[in-house]
Specification:
- By secondary structure, the protein is an alpha/beta fold.
- The chain is 60% helix and 9% strand.
- The chain is built from 18 helices and 7 strands.
- Strands 2-3-4-1-7 form a 5-stranded parallel beta sheet, with helices on both faces.
- A hairpin with an 8-residue loop joins strand 5 and strand 6.
- The chain is elongated and about 85 Å long.
Length: 354
């Protein structure tokens, strides 16, 4: 059986491969019957040879090949025509896939395939010597014929992520409150491996009781982003005391001044990006998050705050942040610069509102 893991999420891909390995029986025998090959350092003959070998005291053999198709794509892009050696190499490989025995699970793990090129859509291999011209079926035809199985292993989008995490928690018999699920997804985003790791860590911390939002804030490192938004929110609301308290909270969380300044600048850049999309008619924070590549939580916060600023105010603030950055990196006391910046931005908001 041949499986194509194309553009698969790293965590889901590793989980899928582990499940296939588990079907090989005893772990020791499974290890003896599992081989991983680097596609950039292998060739069609070697891969097909491994696939044709009989399993040892197990029902099947697992052959994992990483980066072969990516390497083929790179070599195809560098070739001038179908007479290049890469096309003969690919013909050997694509033709050979039809002969892979059922005793082998062949997993091809790659980033992408250009569907405009011969590897996907097929090509004509020119005649050479005694070899006649012939048509070579590409991956698309092999998938349609059932020779190759395309596995869809993409990470869920921001709307589906909480549901994925809830199912993961149920599978692991971990109790977690709905608000904690939402907060954890907002903090981590669609990094499934980190989400799974954080879920395990929180389960140990909760020690049998349901995981709460407070647990997430206490245990997940990315919770500092919410603190940054508390500061940004206080500045937008023209609340200097609240802004200074948020700054103190960040310092207690062991965040260094340069990091805090960088995160503040990131928030204001996000405000500009979100405000621009909202002005263009994109008003759903999930859609904006997907378009900009951010997690849903910061985009939702930015959307709420963006209406309180003009573009001129945001651009002026970014210029001031650049000045502070240069001062902090030129020997000025970093904590003092941050204190002055926060106080100044609060006063500026009052001036702009007047």
């Amino acid at each position: 059986m041949i499986h194509l893991l194309l553009g698969a999420d790293e965590y889901l891909s590793a989980e899928w491969l582990a499940a296939r390995k588990a079907t090989l029986g005893d772990p020791e025998m499974a290890s003896l019957n599992t081989i991983e090959l680097n596609g950039a350092q292998s060739n069609a003959a070697a891969i097909l040879g491994e696939a044709s070998m009989m399993p040892f005291l197990a029902p099947q053999r697992l052959v994992i090949v990483r980066g072969l198709l990516d390497n083929y794509e790179k070599r195809m892009a560098a070739s001038k025509n179908a007479e290049a050696a890469i096309y003969t190499e690919m013909a050997t490989f694509l033709d050979g896939l039809r002969g892979v025995p059922d005793s082998c699970i062949l997993a091809l793990v790659d980033n992408s395939v250009d569907k405009r090129r011969g590897l996907w859509k097929g090509y004509v291999l020119p005649a050479a010597g005694d070899r006649p011209e012939r048509r070579i079926d590409g991956l698309d035809a092999l998938i349609k014929a059932g020779v190759v199985h395309l596995e869809t292993l993409t990470a869920p989008d921001v709307k589906e992520l909480p549901g994925w995490l809830q199912r993961r928690a149920r599978h692991k018999n971990i109790a977690i409150e709905g608000a904690a699920v939402a907060l954890l997804c907002n903090f981590v985003g669609p990094n499934l491996r980190q989400l799974d790791n954080e879920l395990e860590k929180l389960s140990i911390y909760a020690d049998g009781r349901p995981i709460t939002p407070q647990d997430v804030r206490a245990m997940v490192a990315d919770a500092s982003e919410e603190m940054i938004w508390n500061l940004t929110d206080a500045l937008a609301q023209r609340q200097p005391a609240k802004a200074m308290q948020a700054l103190r909270d960040l310092r207690r969380n062991d965040q260094n001044p340069i990091y805090i300044l960088t995160m503040i600048a990131r928030q204001y850049r996000m405000l500009i990006e979100v405000k621009s999309l909202a002005g263009a008619g994109v008003t759903n924070h999930f859609d904006i998050a997907k378009a900009l590549g951010y997690a849903a939580f910061p985009v939702q916060k930015a959307l709420q705050l963006s209406h309180q600023y003009t573009f001129a105010e945001l651009e002026e603030t970014l210029e001031r942040l650049l000045e502070v950055d240069m001062a902090m990196k030129s020997g000025a006391d970093q904590d003092t610069e941050l204190d002055i910046l926060v106080a100044e931005l609060s006063v500026r908001r009052q001036k702009w509102a007047a």
